[in-house]
Each structure stands twice: as C-alpha cells, then as structure tokens.
Amino acid sequence: MNAPRIHPQALCESDKVGPGTRVWAFAHILPGAVIGADNNICDGVFVENDVVTGDRVTVKCGVQLWDGLRVEDDVFIGPNATFTNDMFPRSRVQRDALSPTTVRRGASIGANATVLPGITIGPGAMVGAGTVITADVPANAVVVGNPARVVGYAGVEGVTALDALPPDAPCRAIAADTHRDPRGRLSHWPLESALPFTPRRLYVIDGAPDGWARGGGAYRRSHQFLIATQGAVTVAVDDGRRRLAVRLSGPEAGLHVPPGTWTLQYGHTPDAALLVLASEPYDPEERMADYLPWLAERSA
User: Fold this and answer.
1) Which phi and psi (to 5°) does residue 128 adopt?
2) Which terminus of the chain is more exposed, N or C, with fewer CB under 10 A?
3) Domains of the chain: which residue ranges?
4) Measured between alpha carbons, how far is 9 from 17 in angstroms, rounded to an integer?
5) What class is the 160-299 domain?
6) Residue 286: exposed, middle, or buried by beta-carbon count in 10 A (0-12, 13-18, 19+)?
7) Residue 45 to residue 25: CA distance in whole angstroms
8) Average confidence (pLDDT) per 10 residues, the chain, 300 residues
9) Which pairs count as long-range contacts for 246-252, CB under 8 Å and 24+ apart, including other chains?
10) Where does the record place the Sugar 3,4-ketoisomerase QdtA cupin domain (predicted)?
11) What is the pTM of this model?
C-alpha cells in the first residue's frame, strides 16, 4: 500500500496516518490524531489529538479540527470551515468533557461554515457556504443560512408537483373527489377504494419551525398517506434508487408512501398542517431513523 506523503514543511506528529494520505505544507497534526487512508489534508490545517477521520476525506486550507470531532468516510470540508467543541468557553478553564461532533459519511461542508458543539451532520448532507449549524442536520438535507434551514434534498433537482409524478416515482399521488360551491370546498376520499391499505392511525403535524425539517426516517411495515390540509410542505421521498421532492399544497390530492421508503419534510409555509393516515399503530421498533443502515437493508 502507498505510504502517506508528508510535505517537508508540514508538522505531522501522529504515527496513525493512513496509506495514500497527503499532508500539505504548514499543516500540523498532533500525536493522538487518527487520519484515515487517502485523505487530502491541505495547507494550514490543524488537527488536535482527539480527532478521527475516515477514508477519502478532504480537508481544505485553513480548517482546524478540534478534540472530539469524528469525520466519517468520503467527507468534504471546505476552506475555513469552523468547528467548535465547548458550549461555554472560558480562557484557561479546562473542561472534563467536550461536546463531540460527528460528520457522517459523504457529507459536504461549504467554505466558512460554522458548526456548533455536539452536532451531528447526517450522511450525504450538504452544508452551504457560510451556514451556521445550530442543530443536527438530517441525512441528505441541503442547508443554508444563519441559523441553518433546510432548503432541499441532495440528489434532487427541483420540486415535483403531485400531478407531475413520473411513472417510476417511489410514491403515488391519489386525487380527492373535490367539489366547490358558494359554501366552500369539499375534498373527500372513499378510503376503502382509494387507498391500498386500511388506516389504523391518524396524526397531524403543524407548527413546524420556519426552515427546519421533520421526519427523516422510514417505516418497515407502515404505509402512509399525506395530505396538506392547509398551507404547503415539501416531502423528499427516497427509495434508495430514486429521489424526488414533492410539493403538497391543498387537500385536492394526497401522497401515498409505501413501506420502507425514506421521507423528510421541509419547506413548510407558516400555516402548514399535514394530516397523515398510517396503516399501522405507532411502533418505534419498526421505524428506521439512521439512513445508512436503512440504505444497506434496502440494497440487500
């Protein structure tokens, strides 16, 4: 295997640097750090002792990786991105325990982003340049702003309307029988014939914080049928092969999500209310909330 390549003007005190890794000029890696294979540690990077990186990680110029940081495989960290590890920093005060931060596999962090302590950035997530991360970022979420808000789902271009879903979509639109007259609008579904399941649970989601997301998981057995009874919300739908972002707005049609499909809700309007019918009673054991094990199970 290829030995790591350490620039003569870098200071690498660790003997745990993986094969094929390149450490460039003026980088400083402390003795306790563990650096994986095929990393690219660029000019001016500082790595503290209690830092572990996976394989094929890129750390661009001017980044400091502080104690407690765990970086998984295939992560990109852009120039001058800033990590923190102490919620209440004081000069010359030593903390017994620092808040760990984790960047999951395949995530990307844009230039000059700031990550607060104790955060997990989900697998495949995309953090925009200059973003301030104050809470965990869901898998594959695209986040921007200060504080960060979810604006998209990685691998999806644009948002699809319910009536424009492609035939191979991992979800299905089901239209209501809608009537309008001077008294208002009436939308209804004959459930036994309209839905491919018998509802056994109903819940409503409203009051979602501006710019943040809900969901981020999949149910092994449960069908779901989602209706925006008020306002609008975007639902990312991911079956491990195809990803779509579907905009729900109004009760004239709903979205059927089959079992095993990953969903993430974002882009709520302030008045959004989402009604969900499910085929199974709530069972936390059947819900998968970690994207990578879910993806492995789908691919098996």
Assistant:
1) -70, 160
2) C
3) 160-299
4) 17
5) mainly beta
6) middle
7) 9
8) 92 97 98 98 98 98 97 98 92 82 98 97 98 96 96 93 92 87 80 86 86 88 95 96 94 94 95 94 93 92
9) 246/159, 246/160, 246/161, 246/162, 246/165, 246/171, 247/159, 247/160, 247/161, 247/162, 248/162, 248/274, 251/176, 251/178, 251/185, 251/187, 251/227, 252/175, 252/176, 252/178, 252/187
10) 174-296
11) 0.93
124 and 140 Cβ atoms separated by less than 8 Å: yes
Q: Residue 47 is which amino acid?
A: V
Two tokens, residue 212: 């943040």
What's the full length of the chain, in residues? Answer: 300
CA torsion sign for 182, 189, 230, 164 is negative
Angle of CA points 277, 281, 283, to nearest 5°: 120
